[in-house]
Amino acid sequence: MENPGFEMNEEIIQSSSNMKERTKQEVPERKSHWSLMNIFLVCLLACVISTIIGVLIISLVYINNIGFTTELNIQKHEITSPKTPIRMSDKKRVDVKFQFLNHLGKSKVFQFPGGDIQWARFRYDVNDYPSEEEMEFGTSINNQRSKMTFGTLRIKSKGLRAPHWHFNANEHGFLLKGSAWIGVVDAGGSIVTTYNVTAGQVIFFPKNTLHWVKNVGEDDCLFLLFFTTHEELQTLDVDDVFFSTPEDIAARSLKPQGGVNFIRTFKKQTEDQAINLPPNLVELIQNASYVQSPDKLVWRYFYNLKASTEFKLPGGVIQWARFRKNGAGLNDNEKIFSDSLQMHENALTLGTIRIYSNGLRQPHFHFNANEMGYVISGCGKVGIIVSSKITTDFDIGVGDVVFFPIGTQHYIKSTCDEDLLLILAFSTGNQLQTLDMDDYFHATADHILAQLFFKKQEEFKKIPRFSEDQAINLPSQLKLIAKNN
Q1: Residues ≥6 apart with Cβ < 8 Å to 155
Q2: What is the DSSP letter of 406?
Q3: Helix (H) or strand (E) holding 228
Q4: DSSP character at residue 460
Q5: Contact 175, 199 (CB under 8 A)
Q6: Distance CA 146, CA 85 (A)
Q7: Which residues, including other chains, have CB under 8 Å from residue 259's CB and lie 6 or more apart?
Q8: DSSP readout, 94-106?
């Protein structure tokens, strides 16, 4: 029976049934869709939380590091800044005088088979300094860009300072005692200069020039050495270079009989051979000659300071190993040395100063050089003025090293019964430029001095002028002066 109403209802029922089936099919899809969204949101939230926690941790670490870094920077500033003369350590305050004084006799002795070395120098690693005072001195010469390092070299009889060269410094030396035979190899190796040196004479080795020093006397020889660097000295010894070279490369370079097998017969010693003295030296050497090269070669690297002109002053004597413009006052051999200094960058001027007992090297300063000195004999007192707020004075004795930065006013007074003798080095290969206190007082108009010191102009006529240079002064009326003081 056809019933339209039924047919319509059936369609509705079928339609409703179809919708339910579709709904059932869609529900799982929606459930699946929302599950993925939930997982994504949970992961995103976890990432956000992790990021926040990470930022907080990093911030806390950064804040702590700022405090730590600030503390380190303060310490570093106290150690390295030339504007901070007094550095506080965790243990004690270091006296400002140690910026200008090094008790070399108390420093570490570096021992080798054939001798030893002591240093007054800068070190990159602060742990390499034996004491707070030595660190103060090393830091000072580095801060001032002094281009100066000092050391003593003692070589036993028959000992050898191995052939070597310095990357970053010229070397100037003064032989205090003993005798030695020197060798210097020029570029290309075609010219080898050898010469003998005795106490009171000067040696000079330009940067990157291979050289050796052999003690040919019966006693130890002692060199006082100045190097033109305020950084750590960089040196290569020939034996170290040889043993660091691959055997086949060395064999192809030297082409010895036996080739690489001959190279393999060389044995590296366990002990550093910088200063060498084999126990079986007599067995090793059958014939040794100590040849003297012609003067025209020798005097490029040598100067006879003890025989040079003495500049006599009321209170002492000065002798120089230095450059002189146009060779003024020099003999032919001394001119060779003078020209040699001028040819090499950053050469030094060397000199000895002898101050008689109670003599005074009056206050002065140098326009164009730092100054470093070593006390050979006697004792004295040194005063230095860096600024109106930084002044110091201190006693000096044998083995002490002193340093006067460029432009700082300083004096040296002999305080012993014996003469005070120093070897001095100045960081210039040109003529040294100096101004003494009496000279700049006399050169300044008296009305300028009167205004400056609140003193009547005629009072400055009491400061006498002398016909004789008073650079080293020894008053004739010492007793009267002592009484007045």
Answers
A1: 114, 115, 161, 178, 180, 213, 214, 215, 220, 221, 223, 275
A2: T
A3: none
A4: G
A5: yes
A6: 16
A7: 251
A8: PPGGGGTEEEGGG
Q: Say what the pTM is.
A: 0.80
Q: Are 431 and 366 in contact (CB under 8 A)?
A: no
Structure tokens that stand for 326 in this block: 């146009």
Residue type for position 133: E
Helix (H, G, I), strand (E, B) or coil at 303: strand
Tell me which DSSP letter residue 362 carries: E
- Angle (deg, nearest 10), helices 4-80 and 132-143: 100
User: What are the phi and psi torsion angles at 20 (to 5°)?
Assistant: -65, -40
CA nearest 404: which of 348, 349, 366, 378? 366
The span from the first CA to the last CA of the chain, in angstroms, equals 151
Three-class SS of residue 70?
Answer: helix
Evaluate the CA torsion angle 64, 68, 74, 80 in order and state its sign.
negative
- Residue 41 burial (CB count, 10 A): 10
Cβ atoms of 366 and 434 within 8 Å: the answer is yes
DSSP letters of 237-290? EHHHHHHHS-HHHHHHHH--TTTHHHHTT----SS--SEE--TTHHHH-S----
- Which tokens sit at 231? 């950084």
Per DSSP (E only), the strands in 1-142 are 101-103, 110-112, 115-120
Residue 383 pairs in a beta bridge with: 393, 411
- pLDDT tens, residue order, the chain (485 aa): 443 333 333 333 344 444 444 444 444 444 444 566 676 666 777 777 777 777 666 655 444 443 434 333 333 333 333 433 334 344 468 999 999 999 999 999 999 999 999 999 999 999 999 999 999 999 999 999 999 999 999 999 999 999 999 999 999 999 999 999 999 999 999 999 999 999 999 999 999 999 999 999 999 999 999 999 999 999 999 999 999 999 999 999 999 999 999 999 999 999 999 999 999 999 999 899 999 999 999 999 999 999 999 999 999 999 999 999 989 999 999 999 999 999 999 999 999 999 999 999 999 999 999 999 999 999 999 999 999 888 999 999 999 999 999 999 999 999 999 999 999 999 999 999 999 999 999 999 999 999 999 999 999 999 999 999 999 999 864 434 443 44
